[in-house]
């Protein structure tokens, strides 16, 4: 369903849900997840408790929504021309990696509080939430391995590349980059240098030589 086909009431509902999420993550960032109450979120936004509960069951429900949204954005980013089997050469793989990298940086820039929560605090909520975060990382490693295996199969990545082990190394590198971004979000030059360095390792470090 497109935005144009939604009723004004539905658009207003979606907008309020988005504002509640933003307010919640601002409070989580300032106070910590466990120290934040529904009252804090409602007060920041200037709404009543009843309005909050019409959109979310509790503050954990907000985390569930965000993880689902992060998963959706990842799937959208890794589709079509960015799909694991789309690149047919090293040059195409290089451009593909750059598109994906730039998109992920944009997502972090647009949602720093959400990314901070997922990386720093979500694993302290409960065992089920910890499992969801770990599965999200495992998914990232599995799909990264698909890109690498595809490149090996077509011959533009090293034939001796261990796609599975390398994929976990890549995820570790990306998480480290995310932490660096969250620590110094205004360092735009440093951010771009980090993106370029990561792409260099991800591409030239696994490319077929000669």
Spans of 5+ residues with little confidence (pLDDT < 50)?
A: none
Rg, rounded, reads 20 Å
Helix proportion range: over 70%
The secondary-structure class comes to mainly alpha
**Element pattern in H and E:** HHHHHHHHH
Largest sheet: none
Strand content: under 5%
Q: What is the averaged pLDDT score?
A: 86
Number of helices: 9
Shape assignment: elongated
How many angstroms separate the termini?
A: 50 Å
Tally of extended strands?
A: 0
Descriptive key words:
single chain, 210 residues, mainly alpha, 9 helices
What does this molecule look like?
The chain has helices at 8-31, 38-45, 49-53, 59-77, 90-110, 112-121, 127-154, 163-183, 188-204. The chain is mostly helical. Helix 1 (8-31) packs across helix 6 (112-121) and helix 7 (127-154) crosses helix 8 (163-183). The model has no long low-confidence stretch (mean pLDDT 86).
Summarize the structure.
The protein is mainly α. It has nine helices and no strands.
Topology:
Elements: H1 8-31, H2 38-45, H3 49-53, H4 59-77, H5 90-110, H6 112-121, H7 127-154, H8 163-183, H9 188-204
Helix pairs in contact: 1-2, 1-6, 5-9, 6-8, 7-8, 8-9
